[in-house]
Amino acid sequence: MPVRWREVGGRVLLTNDAGDYLWLDRAPFEALAAGTLKPGHPVWAELARSNMLHDPETEARVVERIRRRSGHLQVGPTLHIVVLTLRCNHACTYCHASRQPEKRAGFDMSLDTAARVLDVILASPAPDLTIEFQGGEPALNFPVLRWFVEEGRRRVAGGSRRLWFSLVSNLSTLTPAQIEWLVDQGVAVCTSIDGPAELHDRHRRIAGGDSHRRTRAAMARFDAAYRRRRLDPSLAYVNALVTVSRGSLAQPEAIVDEYVRMGQKVIHLRPLNPFGMGRKIWAREGYTAEEFLRFWTRALDHIIELNRQGVEMAEKMASLLLTRILTDDNPNYADLRSPCGAAIGQLAYNHDGRVYTCDEGRMVGAMGDDLFCIGDVHRHGYAELIAHPTVGSLCVSSCLECLPGCADCAYAPYCGVCPVYNYIEQGDLVARPATNDRCKMMLGMLDYLFQRLAEPGLPDLFRRWTEVRDRSSVFEPRRPRRPSPRAKARPAAAPPRRAKKGARRA
Amino acid sequence: MDPKVVQKANGVEVTLDEAVFPRPVGLAAAYRFIDRCYVLVETRPGKRLSVRLESKEPTAPAERKALAGEFRNELLHQLVRRQVAERTDGLRAAIVGRALLSADDALAAEASAPAAASDPLDFQDDPLGIAVPWEEKYGGKRENKPKKRSGQPKKR
């Protein structure tokens, strides 16, 4: 079978297209490469077990697994990012969303635009659709958010399609009534906690300087609302993620410990995005790939140690990569698939109706470069948007199997590229991997995970990180406990039964 | 050694053997420098291509050396990109085609429908009346009416 290889820590790692891997010492690898390794050699049986040797049965098995691992090629855009407003009550030091002041007019999505956005979303052929509200601070345009949820549910009622909602918010403007409504409607919620209060408040600036306290208070109100509805606390909770800035680099353990204190089971250590306003302040907040990797590996060492002490915790990026390494499941994460999710897996809708291939493309648009804008909901329908030539260009330039550097990389079965990142950082949709910081980060993370996987006990521990619990029961609208006969007579709202496994941030 | 590099007043001149670096590779590499250099490309005898990069800003000798190095690296990138693209042409068409079809319901239906079963017309049919003279379509006079072909719509 075609195999790829990479030297890691003095040994050679072999991988195949189905994601199988095998460690070899240098001598048998050289014999294999030279064609002098013969049946009967102890390594021969290991190669056969790992699906590295060609025979018709192995080929059929590998093809079937590749099909399963490439399930994202069959579904179309599932994630629809709707920017409800550019206004925000925070002024984060690393903001990349071209925020506008909270009181400034003209940056909210109107109901007319929202109606056209919903038409486009529902024209997507994907059976499962997730509408993710972003901003700015999307909760500042709550009436339109509410309209999307109610009208979206009404439009899919009685059909076979499943519609999920997710709110990415700092939570600080939500009223108790809005929180109750979001829980009742089964809207998944994701927020940002950058670590302990001092670190968080230094970067996530708000009048009063108490962003951490406000967000934590809102999270507590959500928890209470979930408890009142007797929802399983291991399933019903607000997701949180960390944006790693320069100030974070020295304290990975403290950041992880903050998430343990919050009762979170997963922490997403997200590197700072160089797009948009983030690029302008990169000199102050930014760091090299090597610095991020030192931070990330220290955090993972700490999480693994906590796991050994019985604390449940996983890192999101590692979980996604381990899912690709240890299972044939497809998390359909836009950044870790080939081709990437731009347009064919997700679409991003700006507050004014402009449609972008992805949220990263929208951020480039906020910098004044609309290369990744594929139309406008006021003028174009879904089919026209998908037929835009930029969509095809992004597909071709993110098809890992066909890219210089990636096509022969041992990590191709697990990795993904971001053409928008390459465009911003290297002036071309196709990366120059040797000098590409994102590529360095991915290589570093995968090197770390594979080296740890070679340690006794770690594969079992890491396998637990790949287990995704079905949280769909939390993200469906709550029904009255004792429905009246009249309510029973109404058409069924067709609440979704199962969440799409690995749905982004849900 | 190939490519041959010569330092010029405010830049470098690199001469390529097109047997090693085909012309599209040299041009693609040169194109990457047009934001910071004035680029002159000329053919040379013996299937060679000369690329002259003249910096838009004044440069020191060390910067010119770095410029030549960057250009050589870019040449290699473009060469490998071309080779990988040629090697994986069929795979790319399959993966990208599948991804685009899945995102477009109408295209997917069209692609999966058997052509013969869904299209009973032969090449002489004209269901949209494209071959019908406009005079005939819209009531104008015409002396010689064309012979009616199979599948041609009835005159209004």
SSE map:
The complex is a heterodimer of chains A (506) and B (156).
Chain A: E1 3-8, E2 11-16, E3 21-24, H1 26-34, H2 42-49, H3 56-69, E4 79-83, E5 87-88, E6 100-101, H4 111-123, E7 128-134, H5 142-156, E8 162-168, H6 176-184, E9 188-192, H7 197-203, H8 211-228, E10 239-244, H9 252-261, E11 266-271, H10 276-280, H11 282-285, H12 289-308, E12 314-315, H13 316-326, E13 346-349, E14 354-356, H14 359-366, E15 373-376, H15 382-386, H16 389-397, H17 419-426, H18 437-453, H19 458-465, H20 485-489
Parallel strand pairs in A: 4-7, 4-13, 5-6, 7-8, 8-9, 9-10, 10-11, 11-12
Antiparallel strand pairs in A: 1-2, 2-3, 13-14, 14-15
Chain B: E1 4-8, E2 11-17, H1 23-31, E3 37-44, E4 48-55, H2 61-87, H3 89-103, H4 105-112, H5 115-118, H6 134-138
Describe what this molecule looks like in 3D.
- The complex is a heterodimer of chains A (506) and B (156).
- In chain A, a hairpin with a 4-residue loop joins strand 13 and strand 14.
- Chain A has two domains: 69 residues, no CATH class; 318 residues, Aldolase class I (TIM Barrel, Alpha-Beta Barrel), CATH 3.20.20.
- Chain A starts with a strand and ends in a 17-residue tail after the last helix.
- In chain A, helix 9 crosses helix 12, helix 12 runs parallel beside helix 18 and helix 13 crosses helix 19.
- A ten-stranded mixed β-sheet of chain A has the order 12-11-10-9-8-7-4-13-14-15, sandwiched between helices.
- By secondary structure, chain A is α/β, with parallel strands linked by helices.
- The C terminus of chain A is likely disordered.
- Chain B is an alpha+beta fold and 156 residues long.
- A four-stranded antiparallel β-sheet of chain B has the order 1-2-4-3, covered by helices on one side.
- In chain B, 20% of the residues are buried.
- Chain B has a domain of 84 residues: Alpha-Beta Plaits.
- Chains A and B meet through helix 16 of A and helix 2, helix 3 and helix 4 of B.
